[in-house]
Known about the structure:
Order of helices and strands: EHEEEEHEHHEHHHH
Number of domains: 1
CATH class: Alpha Beta
CATH superfamily: Pyruvate-ferredoxin oxidoreductase, PFOR, domain III
Strand content: 15-25%
CATH architecture: 3-Layer(aba) Sandwich
Helix content: 25-40%
Structural class: alpha/beta
Amino acid sequence: MSMKSTAIMIVGVGGQGTLLTSRILGHVAVSSGLDAKVSEVHGMSQRGGSVVTYVKMGEKIHSPLIEKGEADVLLCFEQLEALRWIDYAKKDARIIINDQQIDPMPVILGATKYPENIIPKISAEYGNVTVVPALRMAKECGNMKAVNVVMLGVLARQTEFGKEIWLDAIRQNVKPQFVEMNLKAFEAGYAH
Length: 192
């Protein structure tokens, strides 16, 4: 991510930590001397509903909002959410997808089926797709709720920001009792 404006969308479901992730991203940008705007959560923030947050960073940012076809990075905490928001990604966007599937309410109720072959469909249209077994990795780090920080580690590795800035942002934004576990999850993602 350079001085030019970078637009990042974080998509997932309620309870996956999209807001914490966007706060950490904003912290990294500001610590690096950039302007950053972070949106509030849009969507059903209770567990299970679709959630999206926007982060824009660059020399001067006026609004965090991202329109269709504008996202430089689509950070997807769940497969169906990747499919739901894919139209917002530029054709050359970095798309990072957690391979996890979380059934939305219509699927749970039997009203519809979970779509098949989401990742192959997205990979066929977009050239820069990284698939991450983030739930498995988070469990290996001791907490399945750390999926978001595993995903952040994967993203961090693909940026120009130094690793120490990311680690500091985690320390500053995560509750003290969860810092060590989150640093471990970040390191796992960073090594992916």
